[in-house]
Structure formats: structure tokens, C-alpha cells
Design goal:
Helices cover 48% and strands 13% of the residues. The protein contains 9 helices and 6 strands. A 6-stranded parallel sheet has the order 2-1-3-4-5-6, sandwiched between helices. It is an alpha/beta fold and 233 residues long. The mean pLDDT is 97.
């Protein structure tokens, strides 16, 4: 058996985010989807994930999962055999991005939690037109429903108060994949390029016609990139 693969979902996402990857890779390695719901700051969540993780593992995170993956790399680099950063960024939010996050929290406080997905995020999470695809739409809505408002508030607090990870990138020495959708509106390709440029020997993959939730939108292409990464030396 190969090293275990630890997957960290994004904001308002569950293990369903990685269902295509679990199916693709579980035959020859242990797959663990981290619980990132139990604390409201990145360091505490990372410590909780590490407490439940194998001694050494391959690590992949998407969106919020990228922040947590980089926090884990800072806390326990010797435990990470290889790193994949999917649809994320290392830099802090801009003032406008922070304001948008606080607006979403206000919607939750007003009892409009699911409207966050239906009215604001759904069209931005995937490539144009794909939010109308029933299976993809239903998966996104179900993940948000399963997450729930209390966890959403904790996750948003962790995201809003996270530190910058840009300076840490140069210290990453394990095989690293940086991947994003070419039409990702939330963390556009320039975010991926910036991370790849700062990480020594990182490999950059841009998925054509794909938005923010690459693991669900383009599972074949993402799995091919991950398969190559999992066997890099």
C-alpha cells in the first residue's frame, strides 16, 4: 500500500467534494477526509486534523482546505510526504473580499443561511452555466445543508482571521502540485501561479473550462493530475 492520502474540503463542503477522488484512489491507499468543522481558527483546526492523521501522509486541500494544508505544512512539515493545493491562495483577503465574507455572515445571522448558496455562491463556485446541472447543483446544496450554520460561522471566523502563508511557501520541499480551474472566479489562476512561483519545483496545472470546485467539475482531469503527483519522487 502507498502512503495514506489526507483530503481537506473547502468552506461549506463535506467529504462529497472528494467523492470522485475517493473512488479513484481508494483501491491502493487509505483515504481520509479531514474533519475541519470543530474550531474557529486555522491553527486549532490544523492541530485537530494532525491529531487524527497517520504519522506520514500525502496532503491535498481545496479552497479553505488550502489554508489548512499550508497551516499543517508550517506545523508539521516532516509528516507531509507530498502536497496538493487545489483552487486556493496563500495571500490574505483584500478589504473587498473581507467585506463580502462579513455580508455572508450577516445573511446567516438573518436566518438566510441556505440563501448564501442559492443566491450568492452557486453561480461563482462552478463554471458559467454548470450551476444549472442538477447533479452538481444538488451536491453543492447538500454539502451546505450538511455543514449547517454553526459550522459555517466557525469556518468563516477561521478564514477571516487567518494569517498570510506567502512567506512559508519557499520552505516547502516535498513534491507539490498547484491546480486550479481556468475560470475559477473565487481563487483565479493568478493565485495558483503565485503559489507555484514561490514553492520550489512546484508543478502548476490549470484545468480548462473549470471553476472553483475542480474535484467535482473536472474529476477526470483532476484525478489524472493527482495520479501523477502521487507517484512523483
Amino acid at each position: 500500500m502507498h502512503e495514506p492520502l489526507l483530503l481537506i474540503p473547502g468552506l461549506m463542503c463535506t467529504a462529497a467534494l472528494f467523492e470522485p477522488q475517493v473512488k479513484a484512489f481508494s483501491d491502493d491507499r487509505q483515504i481520509i477526509v479531514a474533519d475541519h468543522t470543530g474550531a474557529d481558527d486555522m491553527h486549532s483546526i490544523a492541530c485537530q486534523v494532525l491529531a487524527e492523521a497517520p504519522d506520514r501522509f500525502a496532503l491535498a486541500g481545496l479552497s479553505m482546505g488550502v489554508y489548512l494544508a499550508l497551516e499543517i505544512m508550517s506545523a508539521a512539515p516532516d509528516r507531509v510526504a507530498r502536497l496538493a493545493l487545489l483552487d486556493g491562495k496563500a495571500r490574505p483577503d483584500t478589504a473587498d473580499q473581507l467585506a463580502a465574507r462579513h455580508a455572508l455572515l450577516k445573511m446567516a445571522d438573518e436566518g438566510r443561511y441556505l440563501n448564501i448558496t442559492y443566491d450568492v455562491l452557486l453561480s461563482r463556485l462552478v463554471a458559467a452555466g454548470r450551476s444549472l446541472e442538477p447533479e452538481l447543483r444538488d451536491t453543492i446544496v447538500q454539502m451546505a445543508t450538511d455543514t449547517g450554520v454553526a459550522v459555517f460561522r466557525r469556518q468563516m471566523a477561521a478564514i477571516i482571521n487567518r494569517r498570510s502563508y506567502l512567506a512559508d511557501l519557499r520552505n516547502i520541499s516535498c513534491p507539490t502540485l498547484v491546480l486550479t480551474g481556468q475560470v475559477d472566479e473565487i481563487t483565479p489562476p493568478e493565485c495558483a501561479r503565485e503559489m507555484a512561483e514561490h514553492i520550489p519545483h512546484a508543478r502548476l496545472e490549470l484545468i480548462s473550462g473549470c471553476g472553483h470546485l475542480s474535484t467535482l467539475e473536472a474529476p477526470h482531469e483532476v484525478n489524472a493530475a493527482l495520479r501523477h503527483w502521487l507517484h512523483e519522487t
